[in-house]
């Protein structure tokens, strides 16, 4: 499929977010002119790219999947990466989305042209013009590699967990792992038996609780296939108990000590070395940083062939890594498990609004949007997985479907009003974010005593949704047109010189 010079709706990204958007748009209007561009050679987003050993979902898969495309074929309650990747590809095939998607097509820039009320878009496969732009590039799409002095002089192998080097054999090697977050807890136990020695650099310990994973047997899968209502019921039950987490994390933080007791007992059971156990004990409330799910991470760090370094990485030499105490640890391979840049998504540097500034410039280091989806000064732009839509308890897929519903409602409203553009009022955006900030104040994500990736460069929590996900669903169920400025279509709308009258909804 080639990129047309003029499209109606352009979706950027073909991961969970982009597929949710295009699927919902086409479900509402099968004749809609929707084009999806994807910079990689296949769909799948983070579940295409992250192929490190042990990569798996940390939300129950029956919930971490589209409600409109259930699968009774999951082999585990927490699906592994290959299954999730295959699932997303199957959704594309099942819904016939292949003809809408242009792969190996990277967004270079997108600029709002007020004279014609359209987005002027540059890609690696040429230019196009779009009436509506849906940025579905995700929050976890670009790996973050710290600028460590001496890294260029290292004679061994270096890669990030999100771009795993499968051609490199770790057997018998001395391996340094930088980071102890959600990816490290999955791949470190998988590679420890191959490596001669592991040196794990921990900046801050995390609270770890067991992952209650189990194999889904053939009988259960057959039940879900023959009685879909049973599968939907399981999804509903899981959704309900995951929502209950908010009761602790946000509404009743006084209950967190009970979680700490449980997590400490789990730590004591798996780590026998008192010094290691002390180093792995956080000094902040559970949930302030992402709670990690693992059944073997802690006991792996207690092994005699694993060194846990808590003094921090300061530099890299030709043959090793140097900690803050000055000790050089000789290693053959360095693996960065340092996460991504959710509070400064790369796409924000590519989008220019009506005043000529990029989204990153407008945000100034602190992303803000109305309902995590629209931004003042950026007409006809819809963000998927935008500011303050991340979760600490449930499935982001539920949030993405909610946003997709909102986009569909916005498109319908634009059609009903013959509008060529909609733009959220600055005051509405400010009011929403003021409520978000206030709601986050007493939550563990803000008041748990840690410094996490949820906080942006200005110290604001621009990442987390502060309450139950059904409240977000309710807020995004219908397009709140009263909070928007409408640019109506006119007879002169096709002329570049025409000025569109802006009216209040």
TrEMBL record:
A GO term for molecular function: oxidoreductase activity
Alphabetical keyword list: FAD, Flavoprotein, Oxidoreductase
InterPro entries for this protein: FAD-bind_Monooxygenase_sf, FAD/NAD-bd_sf, Flavin_mOase-like
Entry-linked Gene3D superfamilies: FAD/NAD(P)-binding domain
Class of the enzyme per the UniProt entry, highest EC level: oxidoreductase
Pfam families: FMO-like (PF00743)
KW Flavoprotein (keyword) present: yes
EC numbers: 1.14.13.-
Family according to the record: Belongs to the FAD-binding monooxygenase family.
Protein name: NAD(P)/FAD-dependent oxidoreductase
